Amino acid sequence: MMKLPSFNNPLFRRQAAGCLLALLVYCAALLLPTPEGLGLAGKKALALMISAIIIWVSDALPLAMSCTLFLFLQGVLGTAPMDDALRNFAIPPVFFCFAMFCIVVAFQNSGLTRRIVLWTSMKSKGRPGRLLFLLMMMSGALSTILADVPVVAMMFPVALFLLEQNGCVPGKGSFGKAVMLGLPLACLIGGVGTPAGSGTNILTMNMLSSTAGVQISFFQWSAIGLPMALLLIPVAWWAVMKIYPPELTELAGMDELCADYECLGPLGRQEKLYIVLLAVNLTLWCTTGLHGLSLPAAAVLGSMLFALPGVSLISWEQDRHKIGWDILFLVGSANSLGVSLWQSGAATWIADTFLSGMSSLPLVAVIALVSLFTILIHLVIPVNTPIVGVILPPVAAIASAMGINPALLALPLGFSVSAAVLLPLDSVSLVTYQAGY
């Protein structure tokens, strides 16, 4: 006989509270008078988006199932035609994210992960500050083309080994704090360097196209994102070192790491194959204007190279569970709900009601306010993708009212979504936070 969940279980209480709160919020929104300038469809779309965020933040339902639920609720509740809701779900960024997951899996299978981590640690020559700088720069560089979570998870074991070898106790001492804070910081900053660094980036590009008709290429994003990441990672390292100066002058355990690196020998066949195929992918992404393929199409076609016979850096039977299917559903569902906000007029109403005063401010002030608001709302909604779906449509409306290119506000928004590191709420930060340092 199946055992019913206990009300004493904190997880069950949180999930039940999330479901109840989401339902109450939606019903309350329908019962309240419709504000001037916001139609019934817009009110429903806004209430549905808020309810979805509550469900996602509380983990009240399995993520992929809740994303599917809110996708179809748009048609059932009349916030958007069902065909439009489905069309706005099956968007290019979903397939781009799938391609990025495939490239990450191939990277893990190639054997390059251990080689890169050991080489980075070895080059520190036992100096704590130098080690942290190299780990952060390497993490940031990898995060520009790979997902943030796998990168920080790759660096974490070696960092933990060095901390344990040097007697760093969780909760005590500065060096452990510096390392465990610096790694996710570098990954999050590096993740904004190119569209490939995060699914949030490509979703920002897609929503900007669907709401404002503005196209941004891989190269155009990278021309802004890469210099910014290269500048901010050393700044972040300097800040971490100032706040948590290492209490160690020399690191123990380096001999073991050097010996492990020597045992790896020269680059293997799979490692060389991965480097060549990754270079092919980067070329495809940066030359979309020449070959005519869209960025998602180029990414999907390029990712298939890793599974070709004779390459076999991806085995579907062994690796399919490593694909972040939940994230793919979340990207599609957040985009569908966000476009519904725009098409129903809810986004314009939000901009007119709450953000109308911003249109009279100087552009620099507007960019600063949009960035600050995005970072603060991330503390309430610790899920990047829905934030883009909620904020970008009103921001695009503000840009239209100001008569400026919406990309001037959308890009800072996309960058700022990943910059919310005030609290360890993001999955990237939680990888190292759980170590207790």
- Counting helices, strands and paired strands, the structural category is mainly alpha
Q: Over the alpha carbons, how many angstroms does the gyration radius reach? A: 23 Å
Q: What is the chain-wise order of helices and strands?
A: HHHHHHHHHHHHHHHHHHHHHH
Count of helix runs: 22
The gross shape turns out to be globular
Beta-strand percent range: under 5%
Overall pLDDT score: 84
Count of beta strands = 0
How many strands, which pairing sense, and closed or not: the largest β-sheet? none
Helix content: over 70%
N/C terminus separation: 43 Å
Indicate the low-confidence ranges by residue numbers: none
Folded structure, characterized:
The chain is mostly helical. It contains 22 helices and no strands. Helix 17 packs parallel to helix 20 (384-402) and helix 19 (363-380) runs antiparallel to helix 20 (384-402). The two termini are 43 Å apart. 47% of the residues are buried. It is found in: Membrane. Pfam families: Na_sulph_symp (PF00939). Its main location: membrane. InterPro entries: SLC13A/DASS.
